[in-house]
Amino acid sequence: MPGLIDPPPSLPPGLGFSIYAQKLWYDIDFATRSIKGRTEITVQPHSKDLRTIRFSCRQTKITYIAIKDHKSPQLRHEDPYSRVDFNVGYGVHQHHLLRQKVQAQLDGGSEDELVLQLPKNFHIEEIEDPFAMSRENATLRLDGDIRIENGDIPVTTEIPKVPGTGEDQAYRYKPIEIILGFDVLGFRDGLQFVGLQKDDPWYPHAFTRSFATPAHPSCLFPCVDDPTARCEWQLSIRCPRTLGDACRKPRSLAPPMINGSTATDVDLPNGESNGTHRADSFNLEDQDEFLMELSEEEKVIDMVVVSCGMLHDEIDDPLDPTRKTVTFRLDTPVTARHLGFAVGPFERCDLASEFRSSDEDDRLGENARPVWGYCLPGRMEELKNTCMVLPTALDYLSTQYSIFPYKSYNICFVENSEADVIDTASLSICSSRLLYPQDILEPLDKVTRQLVFALASQWMGVNITPAGPGDTWIVIGSAYFMTDKFLAYLCGKNEYRYRQKTYADKIFELDVNRPSLYALGSILALDPSEMEFMALKAPAVLFILHNRLIKANGRSGADTCIEKVAKNGKVANMTNNCITTDNFFRVCEKVGHMKLEGFFAQWVYGAGCPDFVVQQRFNKKKLVVEMMIKQTQIDSVSSAKVEPETFMRDAVEEVHKIYAGPLQPLFTGPMTIRIHEADGTPYEHIVDIKEAVTKVEIPYNTKYKRLKRSRRQKERAAAAAGMDVAGDAQDDVLLYCLGDVLQSEEEVLDWQLTDWSKEDEDKMSQESYEWIRMDADFEWICKMDVHMPHYMWVSQLQQDKDVVAQAESIHYLSRMKAAPLLSSILTRTLMDQRYFHGIRTSAAAALTNAAKSEYDWIGFYHLKKAFDEFFCFPDSPMTRPNDFSDRSRYLIQCAIPKAMANIRDEYGKTPMAVKTWFIDKLKFNDNSHNEFSDCHYVATLLLCLAETLIKRIPPGGAYGYQNLTHEAEIAEADFQRKAVEEIERYRRIDEWTSSYQNIYTVTTLDCLKKLTLENVIPRRVEDFMQYTQPGNAPNVRIKAWSSLAEVGAMRHPPLRQYLLYSLESEMSPYMRNEFYRVFGLALGYIALQGNRSRQKTGPLDNGGLVIDQEAADTRAEEIRRSESIEGALESLKNELQTDEGLKDSLKGVLRSDFISLKEFGNFLDICAMLYEPVNSLRVVLKYPRYFKVEHEGKGLLHFVPTKIRTTPLPKAKPPTLPQPKIVFQRKPTLPVPSTSPTPQRPPFHNIINQQQSTPIPPRLSASPAPPPRKTIKLKIGKKNSTALAALASSSASVPMSAPQPSPQPLTSVPGLNSQMPPPASVHPTPPQSKSQPSQPSDPSRNNTNPDVGDALSLPADPNKPKGIKLKIKLNSIKKEEGV
């Protein structure tokens, strides 16, 4: 973890050049889902020694390359997608070998994919006046054939630069213009086609899906894909003119047109056309067949192109009337990752004219940017309802931070998008899942925040980018901070602060064993939850930083820091608008005029959150409040249990060796303590936390006096009765108090409310202050446990106007032991409409604690009474027709049933009165006069009804058998049957009339899943399987698969294989990501629970006797699985490593032609979890075949394979030479002189193995002539003639050399041990002794020149017979090739 004293992470080394401008031409074919393109890149060298230019270029096929006015360079293109082929021999155990091939690309590297080597004769020219070249380039328009020299166009003096280049050498060398042509025939990443496929009913359209993270580089065209490399762009897209033209079946055409010329034409670097393309090559009369059914009105719908930048022109193709070319310009330099477009039959809406007032337009003047919305046909009303807030948001952000960095803002909604929002320059490509009609209320908050965040990302995220992965938190946090500030302007301060309090509490729960914000940036691609956590914590850190800066200087906070960064990058000392953590740290210090090393070290480079325990008491002698503030995060830290929902994140982090940052024992900083004394005046004190245990004494400012609660209650009652509060009592009445409803005697009796007891009033009268508020200015993300009596928390709830203080009080009251008094306080909070709706819904949820038999079910009574008061006819349980015009009332109407569904008796069962209440509300629900849909409200009632059927024993509840009467058992069974039938009835409603996003089907599947898990109904897998098939709505399929995983159906191998097959064959990246998430969820359940069913058995009811059926070792195994990720992974390996079907399915996914490189890496991670790496490969060979050969004449032979050969061929033998002629003669041989004193006949093999020691003079023949026939005569014995014949036969099969006509020595035959001496002079060498072994003959070391040479080689065997003459005709022995 880097510290603040360490230098910031260095930028990537310079490439030796920068990109000044780039032009792109695309020709899109919807029928074949392919594109043909061309790009012209203007490269600015930084040195005359530049010889290699590197680009990112994946999944594209380079068709041509040229340098303007020069020879084409050498090209080396290595597509990383070619390395993801699952070759024959690779298996799931070779996952580490496959990862090594693509690890560089998975880490974000891509510069070596396309390497251009400049020609040797190419020289980079140096410019004498670089400032003149700078001025010339400043006036150079993107269409390079136009140059303005008279100053008609304003000159842009700010030139984009690349790290490592200085301003003095930016234009010292003449630019290089490189032209590249490319084809993309199958997209795995970068561009997504929708429609014109089976089970794909959407209108055909295409859109880019690049993301600004290292794991998602640009995959659309050759470029320098670096977050620090920016340039200007021109984009020309050639596409079908109408929807009917896009849906025509593929046709055979001449080469496609690009910018008015054919692909064959653009191959020529000089730009000349070859004239081969003619308009009469198109025959439209033959193209009447379409790939999808279209009406006549749909056929003429125009295809619209939405892209970054401003529209330059739109020209119909003069040679093809079915196509057109649309050109866009983007003058603001951006990175390649932020270039995007969409093509489809979109409808267009001017959102600015629809929702921006004329006064606002006049106030902004030229800074009022147009806002355009695009959607598919039929969804215009949803677009207007969803995006109506965007013009107001753009005007607010432009006023508060800086002018919008682009000339217009576009938002386009498409189908099957992988992400909800894709950010590109001046264009946000959003999923149509975000669209909702005017009568839907539920997604209002979530979708509005997502769309405003997409708009804010144009400032922080597109215009300002992170310099490195560790700096991603700045742009993510700043964009969300800007979003929340606008929502505070739109919805109010209470909404803003309550949302921040909710986020802070969630961060404290999740920030356990997590990396720091800075370290989190490098692992965002591992799991979607990493980005979700950053999006949660980063803006919260900026929020508390904002509060501390405001306290320090009084006016400037984090919004001022963001404004300075967004307005002018020079203030932050940024390069190419790339922000670093160190730059942002300096800006914050400069704005706040304070030191922030400790803050950044704890909250940016550190991990975890503090846990405070606060104790206080009043010292009457000193008149001070003594407080002790203790940090206990180290003492209370515990390893988080492994859950199925988080199993994949923990497992992937374990595979990649990513560990949590060290938990800090001490957090430091200022903390505001606010003491509300007896007179109601708050006194603030700032305490500087520097130690783990901080003790402070806070002076008391008010005279020791306390107003009695009984008197206050009397004054409230008097005010409620209309009496005037006068006299001395007027001074004692509090000025403001919430929750003072239902105060009359009739209301108290009717609602069965309880007041403070005499004992409580006496205690309150002895207190010196009303309550103590810790961290009143919200400067910490922490857990604060303040030891105060419950009546002080009630005072804080009723008298503190801060919604955060009220939320803290409700949180404490919900944890304390229930009592009728607590139920009365919470009921008054629920009924007081002055409270924020979040406080009221929290109070409703807390009333469940008082719904117990020991309190006569007072909590249930208050909840039911509140619902009847708000939503039923007077004095009747019959609900009024729904009216959701007041959104706060709608939220209360949904919150009360959720709270009632959690009511349980001591046996864990829901009382029958609660169950029948839900049946009645579903039966009598009336939405006929409501302008809003009630589908989400009905879905809430269905979930609550299913919850009432589940037995959940509360803490301290009774286990065992509950004695019920026969009538009660019949009533329980009858209610269960009716409830399940009601759920099934709503499940079938979507089959006739679809609800919004099939909410009824999704909800009922969730209900059936819960009931199956709790053994309420038997498990029926077929109920879920029918919704997993293609053709169902995407969210329905996803819910069905998730339900199957949770009920334990994935323990069956066929279902796992079916899920992976669905993923392998799915073309939608959104669905593949969801299937991957479901598969990870299934692995989590298998790892934690094994291959057993997830249905709970629970303890057996046997007359109150609890029988434990699990063995001790099984229990220990379950504990080991759930306590550590290592134990869970080991259990998962043991369960699945022998599943051969799973291995085949994983191999099928890795071989899929649809998955992207990131998805390929994800499944390699799964293989690493399940299987040990093996460095060997299994080689699979095909059986050999017999071949039949046919002679076709003229030297051609035709080989035809026939049947398969399964048996090995006989062992090959050396070729058999002609049998030598052997002549036996019975006459004496030549005398052999002996060198030994005693004449002794040597053995036969020694005679043959002798070497000639006397040189033989060369022959005198001048011309080569056939050598005379020679005969070698050897005398051996008369016996053993049979052995001699065998000897001759073996010698005939040995390769021999024929005598050469040349006088040079003959080439020795391999395998011969010696040379044969000539017959005229034989001088045998006596046999060597056993102590001196014979050395093998080496012809290269032989200095003699024998006449015959190595003509014959016979094995040396002393047992061979002797005394027989051997006659061999040497000229009958043929010389073999190579001998």
TrEMBL record:
The keyword Transcription regulation applies. Residues 1328-1340 have a biased composition (Low complexity). InterPro entries: Aminopeptidase_N-like_N_sf, Ig-like_TAF2, Peptidase_M4/M1_CTD_sf, TAF2, TPR_TAF2_C. Pfam families: TAF2_3rd, TPR_TAF2_C. Residues 791-1079 form the Transcription initiation factor TFIID subunit 2 TPR repeats domain. One of its GO terms (molecular function) is transcription cis-regulatory region binding. Keywords: Nucleus, Transcription, Transcription regulation. Residues 258-280, 1225-1277, 1293-1363 are annotated as: Disordered. Gene3D superfamilies: Neutral Protease Domain 2, tricorn interacting facor f3 domain. Residues 1230-1242, 1316-1327 have a biased composition (Pro residues). Residues 607-789 form the Transcription initiation factor TFIID subunit 2 Ig-like domain. GO terms for biological process: transcription initiation at RNA polymerase II promoter. It is found in: Nucleus. Functions as a component of the DNA-binding general transcription factor complex TFIID. Binding of TFIID to a promoter (with or without TATA element) is the initial step in pre-initiation complex (PIC) formation. TFIID plays a key role in the regulation of gene expression by RNA polymerase II through different activities such as transcription activator interaction, core promoter recognition and selectivity, TFIIA and TFIIB interaction, chromatin modification (histone acetylation by TAF1), facilitation of DNA opening and initiation of transcription. This is Transcription initiation factor TFIID subunit 2. It comes from Patellaria atrata CBS 101060.
